[in-house]
Write a structure and sequence with these properties.
alpha/beta, Leucine-rich repeat, LRR (right-handed beta-alpha superhelix), 2 domains, 8-stranded mixed sheet, 7 helices, elongated, F-box domain-containing protein
Length: 232
């Protein structure tokens, strides 16, 4: 659009403004359209489409992976990544995607982990070391799996926990013995930068959160339990 009477920065501002005035699905369709207008609009349209990438199906995850493979520079456009898988099982290759996005700092994992083999989450924890904000749904996870994943994110400063942990048969909460084991496993380095902690859904009878489990620098703490216990 070399002959446009509008400066390119004005055009890009209009493209960006779509995010604030429409729901995401409509905005996505609009950006796909603006990307076809001219070469000068491709970069900004693509940035907005990928900045907050959300994946609900394996086919969408595969499309995102192929997009990055075909155009590696697009990986820098992804700043936040959300996986909300509903299938019974998702291959590990799709959960490992944060490693492909050097500027991705926000990660949301929303799925029922009881559908996956034990230890599945631990296989992707080292792929996400640049993450500073994590929203993790823990349904189907044990407390040990949860903490090992969270502690592996050295730059984490914002954590939101949703759902209920999976306990062993006959166990109603996080035992003191397990708390001690987790504390020793962490070696006093986990959650060193964590300042924001929001926990919603974990029963207050579960002895959660355990003492020292989230470091010593939390400045904001919000607890909302299904049995009516809450604090902020």
């Amino acid at each position: 659009m070399d002959n446009s009477i509008l400066p390119i920065d004005v055009c890009e501002a209009v493209i960006d403004a779509v995010r604030g005035y429409t729901i995401w699905n409509e905005a996505y369709r609009t950006w796909r359209t603006t990307a076809l207008v001219c070469n000068a609009w491709v970069s900004r349209s693509r940035f907005n489409m990928l900045r907050d990438a959300c994946v609900w199906t394996v086919s969408q995850a595969e499309l995102l992976r192929r997009t990055i493979e075909r155009n590696p520079s697009a990986a820098n456009d992804v700043h936040a990544l959300c996986y909300s898988f509903r299938q019974a099982y998702v291959p590990i290759v799709y959960f490992a995607a944060p490693a492909l996005f050097p500027k991705c700092r926000e990660l949301t994992l929303r799925t029922d982990w009881s559908r996956f083999p034990s230890g599945y989450l631990s296989r992707i924890r080292h792929e996400s070391l640049g993450i500073t904000k994590l929203v993790l749904h823990v349904d189907g996870l044990t407390a040990g799996e949860f903490f090992r994943f969270v502690w592996s994110l050295a730059e984490l400063d914002h954590l939101e926990v949703r759902g209920q942990f999976r306990f062993r048969k006959g166990e109603v909460g996080l035992s003191e013995t397990l708390s001690d084991i987790l504390s020793r496993t962490k070696k006093h380095t986990g959650c060193a930068k964590l300042e924001y902690l929001d926990i919603e859904g974990c029963s207050s009878t579960a002895n959660f959160p355990p003492t020292g489990g989230f470091g010593t620098n939390v400045r904001f703490l919000s607890l909302a339990c299904p049995d009516g216990v809450s604090a902020c």
